[in-house]
Write a structure and sequence with these properties.
The chain is an alpha/beta fold and about 750 residues long. It contains 27 helices and 31 strands. The termini are far apart.
């Protein structure tokens, strides 16, 4: 069933199948015979019929019910037909009217038609004429209802389309063939600040950024259709008023021309038998936020997040451009490699947060020393690189390097902590020191390590001789790795003497390398490379096993349980399984923990004091004693002697060598002896080479000594021979003697 509405009233449906509502007709006539005849004529025609024999009865029906058609006699006894029609018009009764009258005057017909009658039939009318008129009236009513419905549907569709278009997050627009706006949705105002009225009829160029007009010409005059149309063309459009404060917006324009069977952007031209272009349809999407996000991502890909400096990728790009320019202009440029001295100490003692703050402050100071056009970058960690283009001579690079060192000499304030650092700077000059990016960086790096080797806090220009040294270091590292595999390392022992009895009461273990071509190398010639290249851990693992095997031999051969000092690398102590390895080796070889003393330096205390305390306490619980070496030569703090489980203090050889007069006054020596005595610590003097030194130390209370005056470091077989030569002796009651020192002692 289809339903229609006329003038806001529900119109009756025309039957289109079973169950459809029949057209309702009201038959009005005061002649009973005529009314009955009319009813009989229409009864079987598919209509719902109602009759009225007077005007009042007709009005009553019209007031209660709705009718599609009224067949109305003008002459009624109470209320005339014209008055009934007036009533219908006043009440907006939406029924069509066919007037039937026996009057011959024209005025009656004119009056009926003026009041909206569909037709006027003069009595007597023919049967066919009546049926045809009724059918035509109902058909016209059906068509009118259909038109109203279609108009409403079209209006609703237009509203929905307008709503969808105006609610779109994109700008939707159409242009005529001249490039002038013929339509634009509300989004244009929301994004750009231009109203629809301001844009309609205007040329698209009023919105386009001046630099993008050439590309816009192809986009906004697009004539192609389907896949050939413009896709994803990025343009910058102008914003007006407050909108422009955020900068130019960027749009991704998806433009298409509609073919003839769509929305008619082309119309057929019958004269030339082809489609005529009349405009362009486009959608512009705001991608400003996406572009900004891409810029941020791109920036972060080429910059260091911590310091906001160019990273190594961007630095290499700029260095490459600088090299090309220098080659074209036949000029020189400098590449600097900067490594901060003592930065790791700051990081370990104050933490990584303060270390990051220090790097940020360093970056600011270094930037302040540069010229316009120079590039400072962070390579990573505490390393920075710099390119200085268009040098007048090498002295320009030297001046800037001096500025760097001077700026870093001033103390840094890290939330109340005053920190001092320096830098080692290597410099390579193009083209003399290399013509490629990698060559210049590598040679600057080599020059920087040369400064490190010479004591840090300075700068050096690259020289070819440095490359030979660098190659030697690489060769040494490779050979050292092979030495572990081929069992070329060996432990030597320097006896510790009780100066009163002359007996050996302990020994310090010192590493040697039986190099296949260079002969016997001391620890100082190879262990620094091991520390730099991650070899200290496997070397220390080997050393623990070697020492336990050697101790087992000398205990069996000499019958004397002489204490052993083990030099401990900070890197090895930092490793979590150090204690387990030590305990496992002692158990495996049957060595008493009381025969072992581990020697540490103050540097271990500073690196990670709490962790070091935990590790050393474990050793003490096992029965191993602890000695502190180099006391007074580093960052000394008496609090370390209270916090750490220290049993022995060693007097460094740098203090011992100052003793020249047996009657002299050496306050540092006396202070260390006094501290050891006050804390009830065992005392050992290193580097004793003269009788004067031995007599002075003995006279002031230090009786355990080691040094060339007594013995040089000797091999295991020689050490066992020395032990056999002296009368059997037991360990002193104190249980002290052996040490396991840190890197400096390892290199003795």
């Amino acid at each position: 069933m289809n339903e229609y509405r006329v003038n806001g009233d529900p119109a009756l449906s025309i039957a289109h199948g079973e169950g459809a509502q029949l057209p309702r007709l009201l038959l009005v006539d005061d002649e009973p015979r005529l009314l009955a005849s009319l009813y009989e004529l229409l009864r079987d025609r598919g209509y719902d019929l109602t009759t009225a024999s007077s005007g009042s009865e007709a009005i009553a029906h019209l007031s209660r019910s709705r009718f599609d058609l009224v067949l109305l006699d003008l002459r009624l006894p109470d209320i005339g037909g014209h008055e009934i029609m007036d009533f219908m018009n006043e009440r907006a009764v939406g029924s069509d009217v066919i007037v039937m009258s026996g009057e011959v005057g024209i005025d009656a017909a004119i009056g009926a038609l003026k009041r909206g009658a569909y037709d006027y039939l003069r009595k007597p009318y023919s049967r066919e004429e009546l049926l045809k008129t009724v059918g035509n009236a109902l058909e016209q009513r059906r068509l009118a209802s259909s038109n109203v419905l279609m108009a409403q549907q079209l209006e609703n569709s237009e509203k929905m389309y307008r709503y969808l278009v105006d609610s779109s997050p994109d700008i939707i627009y159409t242009l005529n063939h001249e490039g002038r706006f013929t339509f634009v949705n509300d989004r244009a105002y929301q994004l750009l600040g231009f109203s629809r009225d301001e844009l309609i009829g205007k040329h698209y160029s009023i919105l386009v950024h001046d630099e993008d007009l050439e590309r816009a010409r192809y986009v906004f005059n697009e004539r192609r259709v389907d896949e050939r149309a413009s896709r994803n063309v990025e343009l910058r459009l102008k914003c007006r008023g407050a909108k422009s404060n955020s900068g130019d917006r960027t749009f991704n324009n998806t433009l298409m021309t509609i073919s003839l069977n769509s929305i008619g952007m082309h119309v057929p031209d019958s004269e030339v038998q082809k489609l005529e272009f009349f405009g362009t349809y486009g959608v512009a999407r705001d991608i400003t936020d996406r572009k900004r996000a891409e810029e941020v991502i791109s920036y972060q890909a080429y910059h260091d997040i911590l310091t906001d400096l160019p990273n190594r990728i961007l630095f290499k790009d700029r260095l490459g451009l600088a090299v090309i320019q220098a080659k074209r202009k036949l000029t020189e440029l400098a590449v600097m490699f900067i490594d901060l001295d003592r930065f790791k100490l700051v990081n370990d003692t104050l933490g990584h947060v303060k270390g990051d703050e220090l790097l940020q402050q360093v970056a600011v100071r270094l930037k302040d020393c540069l010229r316009k056009g120079d590039t400072l970058a962070r390579q990573g960690g505490d390393e920075f690189t710099i390119v200085l283009p268009e040098l007048r001579d090498r002295d320009d690079a030297r001046i800037i390097a001096d500025k760097f060192l001077e700026s870093l000499h001033r103390p840094f304030d890290l939330d109340g902590h005053e920190v001092h650092i320096s830098a080692s700077i290597g410099i390579a000059i193009y083209p003399g020191d290399g013509e490629s990016i990698d060559e210049l960086l590598r040679h600057a790096d080599i020059a920087m390590y040369q400064v490190k080797a010479l004591g840090k806090n300075g700068h050096s220009f690259y020289h070819d001789s440095m490359l030979d040294v660098s190659h030697q270091k690489i060769a040494l590292e490779q050979a050292l790795r092979r030495a572990l595999e081929h069992n070329e390392l060996e432990m030597y022992y320097q006896p510790q003497i009780d100066s009163t009895s002359g007996r050996i009461v302990g020994a310090e273990a010192l590493m040697r390398w039986n190099h296949p071509t260079r002969g016997l190398l001391s620890a100082g010639e190879f262990l620094p490379f091991a520390e730099e290249n991650g070899l200290m851990l496997p070397i220390s693992d080997w050393m623990i096993g070697a020492l336990c095997r050697d101790m087992l031999q000398w205990n069996l051969a000499s019958g004397q349980a002489v204490r052993l000092s083990l030099n401990l690398s900070p890197q090895y102590l930092d490793r979590g399984d150090f204690f387990e390895k030590m305990r496992g080796a002692l158990v495996r070889y049957g060595i008493s923990p009381g025969q072992i003393e581990v020697e540490i330096t103050e540097n271990i205390c500073i690196r990670n004091p709490q962790y070091a305390i935990e590790q050393l306490n474990k050793l003490c619980q096992l029965g191993v004693s602890v000695a502190i070496d180099d006391f007074g030569t580093g960052y000394s703090s008496l609090s370390y002697l209270h916090r750490f489980p220290i049993h022995t203090m060693k007097i460094d050889q740098s203090f011992v060598k100052e003793i020249h007069d047996p009657d002299g006054h050496y306050p540092v020596i006396l202070a260390i002896i006094s501290i050891a005595r006050g804390l009830n610590l065992h005392l050992v003097a290193e580097g004793v080479e003269t009788e004067t030194q031995a007599n002075y130390l003995r006279a002031n209370g230090c009786e355990t000594m080691q040094g060339y005056l007594f013995h040089r470091p000797i091999s295991l077989s020689s050490f066992i021979g020395v032990l056999r030569a002296q009368a059997p002796a037991t360990l002193p009651a104190s249980g002290h003697g052996a040490v396991f020192p840190a890197p400096r002692a390892l290199r003795a």
